[in-house]
Amino acid sequence: MPSKSMVEVKICGINAPRAMDAALDVGADLVGLVFFPASPRTVSLREAARLAARARGRARVVALVVDANDALLAKIVAEVAPDLLQLHGSETPARVAEIRKRFAKPVMKAIAVAEAADLAAIPSFAAVADHLLFDARPPRDATRPGGHGRAFDWRLLARVERLKPIMLSGGLNPENVAEAIRIVRPDAVDVSSGVETKPGVKDPEKIRAFAAAARAAASLAPETLRSA
Questions:
Q1: What are the start-end ranges of the H helices in 44-87?
Q2: Residue 56 to residues 6, 21, 53, 91, 209: CA-CA distances in angstroms?
Q3: Positive or negative torsion for Cα 17, 19, 23, 25
Q4: Which positions are catalytic?
Q5: What is the C-alpha separation between 52 and 39, in angstroms, rounded?
Q6: Which residues lie closer than 8 Å to 91 by C-beta, 6 or more apart?
Q7: How far apart are CA 64 and CA 22, in angstroms?
Q8: Helix, strand, coil fractions of the chain, as percent rounded to 5
Q9: Which runs of consecutive H residues, i.e. helices, occur in the chain?
Q10: Is residue 141 a contact partner of residue 120, using CB atoms and an 8 Å limit?
Q11: CA distance 91 to 69
């Protein structure tokens, strides 16, 4: 299995054993399971439990939810036993803190970004979440908050104060992840649609290419990245 790097790799929206095996084979640090019916990547609790068991001990399992109620969260925690809860909806800082306390799991809060003003939410969420994920703000007519293959201006994050570990998401793919890492220097990068042949269908070759590109970029010294 490839060695881990200074920038972690998360493959999200895994909904089939073949995709999970591809992610694990490249040494993905985190694997994401989506619990949101509007997504083409959604999984049932039974499917998720099987996929999580496949990953256990090889990668951290992330459960992605969107404004989930306590009943759904309780089922996910009991049946899937994720290592991390990713809150990708309109959860408030108070709700994030409540979920983290009630379910005793590390929490990652997604922040949608389109302009500099969106970064004003960082301090409030950093105070209650273990990790912050920055994703592109979805189109107005979107039925889901992520997985659209859209990027935002990464330069907005270049000078953001690192109050918590940050993960970069939104429109990443094997061709642009090195540039994203060069600009942002995130703790982790997250990909879903960027390694698919069509919505919900992961491509093992693209997963391999993404992980290789991310690790190659992460292996460069920070001084080299800043001057590139």
A1: 45-55, 70-79
A2: 21, 12, 5, 28, 23
A3: positive
A4: 12, 135
A5: 19
A6: 67, 99, 109
A7: 20
A8: 40, 20, 40
A9: 17-25, 45-55, 70-79, 93-103, 122-126, 177-184, 204-218, 222-227
A10: no
A11: 11
Show the tokens assigned to 175.
Answer: 């061709």
pTM exceeds 0.70: yes
Q: pLDDT (tens digit, 9 = 90+) per residue, 28-64?
A: 999 999 999 999 999 999 999 999 999 999 999 999 9
Which amino acid belongs to residue 175?
E
User: 8-140+148-227 has which fold?
Assistant: TIM Barrel (3.20.20)
Q: Which of 156, 140, 158 is nearest to 148 (CA)?
A: 140
Kindly compute the dihedral angle of the four CA atoms of residues 60, 65, 71, 75, in this order, to the nearest 10 degrees: -30
Tens digit of each residue's pLDDT (9 = 90 or more) over 75-116: 999 999 999 999 999 999 999 999 999 999 999 999 999 999
3-state secondary structure of 119: helix
Residues in the chain: 228
What tens digit of pLDDT does each residue of 112-134 get? 999 999 999 999 999 999 999 99
Looking at this protein, which amino acid is placed at residue 74? Answer: A
**8 A C-beta contact, residue 67 and residue 46:** no
- Domain-wise residue ranges, the chain: 8-140+148-227
Cβ neighbours for 101, distance < 8 A, ≥ 6 positions apart = none
d(CA 106, CA 113): 22
- Single-letter amino acid code for the residue at 181: I
